[in-house]
Amino acid sequence: MLQGLRTVVYPVGDLAKATAWYSTALEQAPYFEEPFYVGFNVGGYELGLIPQNTAAGQAGPTAYWGVPDAAAAYARLLELGAHPSEEVQDVGSGILVGAVLDPFGNLLGVIQNPHFKLPA
């Protein structure tokens, strides 16, 4: 049984640049940083970066990260050098989603969901 998002791992061509970019985007330093893996704790979930010789990033599903204001988060990621992929839109019931391509070619989604509550 799936219990919820725990970890998203993005392959990056330049681990040092990706670590610096995500440190700025997340407004925190990684809790784990080695040449083979960099890990960030983001609200109890893990964002991992692994070195990979690729310019385009990985193909696959988009991981959506919860944010209090999807439009503001989307705009901030673009200001930090991300590229538009999916503009923020209401997908029903007041849930807002959007996605950008980070500077390393990975899809990074944001979701503002007023119905989602973390368990106490």
Arithmetic mean of pLDDT: 86
Q: Judging from the principal axes of the Cα atoms, what is the shape?
A: globular
Instruction: Tally the structural domains.
Output: 1
| Alpha-beta content class | alpha/beta
How do the SSEs run, as a string of H and E?
EHEEEEHEEE
The biggest beta sheet reads:
4 strands, mixed
CATH topology: 2,3-Dihydroxybiphenyl 1,2-Dioxygenase, domain 1
Distance between the termini: 20 Å
Level of helix content? 10-25%
Q: Can you walk through the features of this model?
A:
The chain is of the alpha/beta class and 120 residues long. The protein is built from 2 helices and 8 strands. The chain has one domain (7-112): 2,3-Dihydroxybiphenyl 1,2-Dioxygenase, domain 1. The chain has helices at residues 15-26, 70-79; strands spanning 7-12, 32-34, 37-42, 45-51, 64-66, 83-90, 96-101, 107-112. The chain has a 4-stranded mixed sheet with strand order 1-4-3-2, with helices on one face. The mean pLDDT is 86. InterPro entries: Glyas_Bleomycin-R_OHBP_Dase (IPR029068), Glyas_Fos-R_dOase_dom (IPR004360), VOC_core (IPR037523). This is VOC family protein. Residues 4-113 form the VOC domain.
Condensed summary:
By secondary structure, the protein is of the alpha/beta class. The chain has helices at residues 15-26, 70-79; strands spanning 7-12, 32-34, 37-42, 45-51, 64-66, 83-90, 96-101, 107-112.
Task: Please tag this protein with its features.
4-stranded mixed beta sheet; 2,3-Dihydroxybiphenyl 1,2-Dioxygenase, domain 1; 120 residues; Glyas_Fos-R_dOase_dom; VOC_core; 38% strand; 2 helices; VOC family protein; alpha/beta; globular
